[in-house]
From TrEMBL:
Record's keyword annotation contains Transcription regulation: yes
Name of the protein in question: DNA-binding helix-turn-helix protein
Keyword Transferase on entry: no
Protein's organism: Streptococcus anginosus DORA_7
Gene3D superfamilies: lambda repressor-like DNA-binding domains (1.10.260.40), Umud Fragment, subunit A (2.10.109.10)
GO molecular-function terms, A-Z: DNA binding
PANTHER family cross-referenced by the UniProt entry: HTH CRO_C1-TYPE DOMAIN-CONTAINING PROTEIN, PTHR40661
SUPFAM superfamilies: lambda repressor-like DNA-binding domains, LexA/Signal peptidase
UniProt keyword list: DNA-binding, Transcription, Transcription regulation
InterPro entries: Cro/C1-type_HTH, Lambda_DNA-bd_dom_sf, LexA-like, LexA/Signal_pep-like_sf, Peptidase_S24_S26A/B/C
């Protein structure tokens, strides 16, 4: 038995008639035949409110009433199935064209499922370095990387590292990945990754005569001054950030 034949056979059960009943098909056919809801209800020996519930979708007729409706409206019982047009057209095809129809539907379904898949892009993040958006975290000379995923492809960066803390909120959030371009200090007021006193920070930097002013976006954190004599090192300019996709 062909796969589509099995589907058709399954449709012929009483339960499937009930589940797939189309109130739209019923209403349109009643109107086209010139019947009122009351007239149909009287022919079925039921009250009008019961019939109205079928056309409104609140209830569905049983097999007995479906059979009577098909006789009154001069249609096959299958007409009241929501998939009637599809099934009826399929049954009119030649065996060869039925096979083609099945194959085409399967191709459409596969294409639809594929188009609903969101592409993910991998990013290698430094495992042992966290860019502190707080009070500072340890900097390691040797480190490993781990793979995370973004729903957008990331460009133009050399280093990716974790952000920790809330001093750069609301723009940069703890748990995000910062993307850094290793090009040293570029201009005042940009956001940089900075290594200072064995810690790495992500802050806005301003270059003064004797050092850098390190400024947080979160006003709860005070500005810090870093003298050049402390030998701070600019890791690079922060050119982007994203929250990794979870559960991958």
């Amino acid at each position: 038995m062909q796969k589509f034949d099995k589907i058709l056979l399954f449709y012929k059960t009483t339960q499937e008639y009930y589940t797939m009943f189309s109130e739209i098909n019923l209403k349109e056919k009643r109107i086209s035949k010139g019947f009122s809801q009351t007239e149909i209800a009287n022919l079925l020996n039921i009250n009008r409110s019961s019939y109205h519930s079928w056309e409104s979708g609140r209830a569905k007729p049983n097999q007995k009433h479906l059979t009577l409706l098909s006789k009154i409206l001069d249609v096959p019982v299958t007409y009241f199935e929501s998939e009637y047009n599809i099934i009826n057209s399929y049954l009119q095809l030649s065996p060869d064209n039925q096979v083609k129809a099945e194959e085409y539907v399967e191709e459409l379904l596969l294409s639809q499922q594929t188009s609903n898949v969101t592409p993910l892009f991998s990013v290698q993040v430094l495992s042992d370095i966290q860019l502190s958006a707080g009070l500072g975290e340890g900097f390691f000379d040797e480190f490993e990387t781990e793979t995370v995923y973004s729903n957008e492809e990331q460009y133009g960066y050399d280093i990716a590292a974790w952000i920790e803390g809330d001093s750069m909120e609301p723009v940069y959030k703890s748990g995000e990945v910062a993307l850094i371009r290793s090009n040293g200090f570029d201009y005042d007021g940009a956001v940089y990754a900075l290594s200072w006193k064995d810690s790495v920070y992500i802050k806005k930097l301003y270059r003064d005569e004797d050092g850098f002013r390190m400024v947080s976006l979160n006003k709860d954190y005070p500005e810090k001054f870093i003298p050049y004599e402390d030998e701070p090192s600019i890791v690079g300019l922060v050119v982007g950030h994203f929250m990794p996709v979870e559960g991958v």
